[in-house]
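Re: that backbone. Tokens:
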């Protein structure tokens, strides 16, 4: 029975050898009850666990550890001011290309209400207004995404990858290669990414690690061409009928407006007609 127990232990041969020696040497001296108690102790005590949570695994990287040391006090103060606890932290990121701004919002749950944590300047964002369509167009994407990668050893200090291309992007690109590897990162250079300097990415990266470690599996990221308030949309509506992004931007304005009204990003999916729709 105990050899089967040993076989299911973590894949650490040194630990297995110790367990095997212990049970073979002393099995006859222990009652079944004591054996069960010892097995429970081995499974429940951190001393015998080699599993690492996401937070611990990230802090092994020097840049992440340094970022946490630099930004720890600032983050704690801002979260306290927002009434958000690190244990329950959920974050939402939205960016505006024309204004060159990236906002981080925080809440105690996915249902909000989200409060503004900080607004950061975007140091570099290549391309023009309009979504990314194909590889090499140098465009920053526009649309609804989520963080799908953490890169603690980025060529641009630290970086958070977004899940471009999504289903809507693929539909728009057609037969063309839509490209990929779009990040929010440090430094001040862009070929389709959002560069926010090393100082700012330190703060955003640590917040994202904290949120993921606390259980937020998908951190939403909404990227807009500009702040889609009433004044901006009046200008969009005056555009010529053949403007290729007018309909798309009107759809993005729904997403922008939903957050402004409800203080939560909502869950958006794409339909067959190439439009984002709110998932109930």
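Recovered sequence:
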């Amino acid at each position: 029975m105990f050899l089967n127990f040993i076989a299911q232990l973590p894949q650490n041969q040194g630990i297995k050898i110790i367990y095997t020696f212990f049970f073979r040497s002393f099995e006859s001296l222990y009652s079944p009850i004591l054996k069960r108690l010892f097995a429970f102790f081995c499974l429940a005590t951190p001393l015998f666990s080699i599993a690492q949570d996401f937070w611990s695994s990230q802090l092994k990287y020097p840049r992440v550890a340094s970022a946490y040391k630099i930004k720890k006090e600032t983050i704690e103060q801002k979260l306290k001011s927002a009434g958000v606890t690190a244990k329950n932290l959920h974050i939402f990121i939205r960016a505006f290309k024309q204004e060159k701004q990236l906002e981080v919002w925080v809440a105690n749950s996915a249902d909000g209400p989200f409060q503004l944590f900080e607004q950061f300047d975007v140091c570099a964002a290549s391309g023009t207004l309009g979504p990314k369509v194909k590889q090499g167009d140098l465009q920053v994407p526009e649309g609804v995404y989520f963080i799908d990668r953490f890169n603690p050893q980025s060529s641009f200090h630290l970086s958070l990858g977004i899940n471009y291309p999504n289903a809507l992007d693929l539909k728009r690109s057609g037969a063309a290669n839509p490209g990929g590897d779009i990040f929010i990162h440090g430094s001040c250079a862009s070929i389709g990414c959002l560069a926010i300097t090393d100082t700012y990415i330190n703060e955003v990266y640590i917040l994202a690690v904290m949120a993921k470690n606390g259980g937020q599996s998908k951190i939403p990221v909404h990227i807009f061409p500009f702040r889609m308030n009433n004044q901006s949309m009046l200008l969009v509506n005056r555009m010529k009928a053949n403007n290729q992004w007018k309909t798309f931007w009107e759809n993005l304005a729904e997403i922008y407006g939903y957050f402004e009204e409800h203080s939560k990003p909502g869950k958006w999916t794409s339909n067959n007609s190439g439009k984002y729709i709110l998932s109930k």
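The radius of gyration is 24 Å. Confidence is low (pLDDT under 50) at residues 1-31, 33-51.
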